[in-house]
Amino acid sequence: MSTVTIEPVDPRAEPDPAGPPSRTTSPAFQVPGTALSILAAIAFGLVCHLVLVSQLTYEREQQTAFADFRAELARGTAPVGQFRADFVDGVEGPERLVEPGSPVAVLSVPRVGLRAVVREGTDGGVLRSGPGHRRDTVLPGQVGNSVIMGRRAAYGGPFRDLDLLVPGDTISATTGQGTHDYVVTGLRRAGDPAPAAAPGQGRLTLITALGTEFMPTDVLRVDAALASPVQPTPARRFGASALPAAEQAMATDQDAWTPVLLWGQALLLAALGLTWLRSRWGRWQSWIVGVPVLLALGAATVDQAVRLLPNLL
Length: 313
What we know:
single chain, alpha+beta, eight-stranded mixed barrel, two-stranded antiparallel sheet, 10 strands
């Protein structure tokens, strides 16, 4: 019978410097993996921005707007037309166009529990802060049709429940000329005829998206007739032909492409730098350093990318 001889191991012997074979990831696989991780993070960030961050932004902007507009009403300087006078040290100066984003009214719709400050302008940037007044129309309470747009889902979704309104519901709007009451006359969808204009009367049209939240398929319009006395209507010098395309219903802000591309390039460079650091420092060390940078750049990219979505979303 053969025997197996086991040689004793010298405890003083030094270990093999090569050690056991280590598993390394080829750079050819590191780059796609990192890119997919970043794309997933951006997609997740976009969802978080629309659902959570936009809601916080809306609430903060509304609080600020309420305070500013209340102060203007108290001073009697709230705008009542397309132009407002400049006041320097209490002295009235030349007129200037009301800046987009300026508070112009407080809208209240009791049926759906809505009370929000309306700002001047209807592009995607203005509608982040709440409903917006279409600048080529009169202000609420005046002769003619006043148009106010608002988002259905993102940034507080102030107009999400407009489809619940029925004829006879009441709407009120407070401007520099007082509080004006309206009565809903009907809801319109694509293809429905607009109500006939009544000379010397005031009307209000609320516009928002229609369809599944974040996936609009149509535009909803709520028409209301002025039930309180008509207020004086200042002369208007800003017509529909001067209204930028970004302020139309369901329009996108094409000016956002430049910052999106710039922030996107910065994010790409940061991703490439993270990949390089990963091959030099290791996975965890590189992520500890790179994640805060990627989060900051990703948030900036997402914030600008939201401007490319329809303004009534």
